[in-house]
Amino acid sequence: MHLLALGVNHHTAPVEIREKVAFAPEKLAQALGEVTGHGAAHEAAILSTCNRTEVYCNLDPSNDTRLIEWFCDHHRLRRDTLQPYLYRHPDQDAVKHAFRVAAGLDSMILGEPQILGQMKDAFAEAHKAGTTGKILNRLFQQTFAVAKQVRTDTAIGASAVSVASAAVVLAKQIFDSLAQQTVLLIGAGDMIELCARHLKEQGVGHMIVANRTLERAELLAGPYGAEAISLAEMPARLADADIVISSTASQLPILGKGAVERALKARKHRPMFMVDIAVPRDIEAEVAELGDVYLYTIDDLQGVVQENRQSREAAAREAEKIIDVQVLNFMHWIRGLDAVPTIRALREQADAVRERELKRARAMLARGADPEKVLAQLARALTNKFTHAPTDALRHADLDGELLDAARRLFDLDED
C-alpha cells in the first residue's frame, strides 16, 4: 500500500498557477477515470477549490512520477513549469495532510469550516465515479471523523470566519457603513451564499444575486431579501453596484475591463469595490488598472485573515495533538492490512495439514484400527506438523535472540 497526496495550494502557488490546475466540476469524473484508467493509480480522489487542487491516491510506489506526468499533461503544462509549486506527501504524511486540511489547519483562514464540506463533496464524486476502494474509503471516513473531533474538542471553530466573511470585513473597512450600499453577488454557490449571510448580518442596504440560472439565483436570494437576476442582465445592472463579489465556476472571466469602464461612466466615476474569490478568476486582471476600482483577488485577502490567526493558534496546537494520535491509529490499521496475506497463508497451510491428517485418520478407521490409537496418532501428527517449521527456525535462530523473543510473544510462552 502506498498513499500519496499531490497538489498545489495557496501556500505554494499564486492564483495564476492555481487557476491553471483547477478541475472544472463537470470534468471531474473524466479526470478521475483518466488517473485510474491509465494505470497511474489504483484509487483516486480530487479536491479542487479556490485555494487548492489536490489528488489523493492509492498507487504503486513506482507510479509517483507517472502521476505527476499525468497531472501536468492533463492541464497542458510543462513539468518544469509546475514542479516548483507542487508538493507530494507520501503515506503517513498524506494521512496527516488530509486530516489537517479537513480540520481547517491548512486553510487561508485557520479553522474555516467550508473545506470539510468540499472534501466530502470530493469524496462523494470519486465514490460515485468508482475510483475509491478500501484504502481511500477508510481514509476519508476517518478524515471526516477527525475533523468532527477537532471541532468538538477544541475552540478552532469559535467565531468561525471564511474567505466570504473576510470579503465582507474588507468591504466594511472601505465603506464606513454598508447600510447605504448596493452589493452585486455573482454566482449562487456556497461561497456566495456565505457572503449573502454575512452581508445581511451587517445590515447591507440592497443585494442583487446574478446567476446563469435565474431559478438558482431566486432560490439563494429569497431568504436574504435580495433581488435575483440572470447573468445576461448583469452587465446592465453593474452600474448599480457599489460592491461586487464574484465566485462562479466559469473557466473564463465573466467581467472584462470594457464592461466595468462602461459601468463607471454610468456611475459618474463613483468608486466600486470588487472582490474576485473565484479560481479561475471571474474578473479580468486588467480591471485593477482602472482608477475608480478597488479590485481584490482571493490572495489579497491574506492580510485580512491574518488578524484572525492569533486567537486560533492555541486551539490549532490542541488540534495538532489530536491529529497526531489519529494518524498513528490509521497507520496501525494500514500495517494490519499488510499482515492479512501472511495470516491468510498461515490459515490455508494449517487447513491443508488438517485435511491431510483427517483423511489419513478416516482411512485408518475404515480399516478397523483402534479409534483411541487413531486419535492419538492424529493429535501427534498435527502437533508435529504445526511445530516443525517454527522449531526448525528457532534452532537456527541468530544469537541476538530477536527471533526467540518474537516466538515467545507469538505463541504466548512463559519466560521460564
- What is the CA-CA span between the terminal residues? 39 Å
**What would CATH call the architecture of the largest domain?**
2-Layer Sandwich
The assigned structural class equals alpha/beta
**Major sheet details:** 6 strands, parallel
Mean pLDDT: 89
Total helices: the number is: 16
Whole-angstrom Rg: 30 Å
Show unreliable segments.
none
N to C succession of SSEs = EHHEEHHEHHHHEHEHEHEHEEHHHH
Number of domains: 3
Q: What is the C-level CATH assignment of the largest domain?
A: Alpha Beta
CATH topology of the largest domain: Beta Polymerase, domain 2
Strand order of the largest sheet: 7-6-5-8-9-10
CATH H level, superfamily name of the largest domain: Glutamyl-tRNA reductase, N-terminal domain
Number of strands: 10
Q: What share of residues is helical?
A: 40-55%
C-alpha geometry: elongated
**How much beta, percentage-wise?**
5-15%
Key words describing this protein structure:
single chain; 416 residues; alpha/beta; Beta Polymerase, domain 2; Rossmann fold; six-stranded parallel beta sheet; four-stranded antiparallel beta sheet; 10 strands; elongated
What does it look like?
The protein contains 16 helices and ten strands. The chain has 416 residues and is an alpha/beta fold. It folds into three domains: 157 residues, Beta Polymerase, domain 2 (2-Layer Sandwich); 144 residues, Rossmann fold (3-Layer(aba) Sandwich), CATH 3.40.50.720; 68 residues, no CATH class. The longest helix has 58 residues. The model has no long low-confidence stretch (mean pLDDT 89).
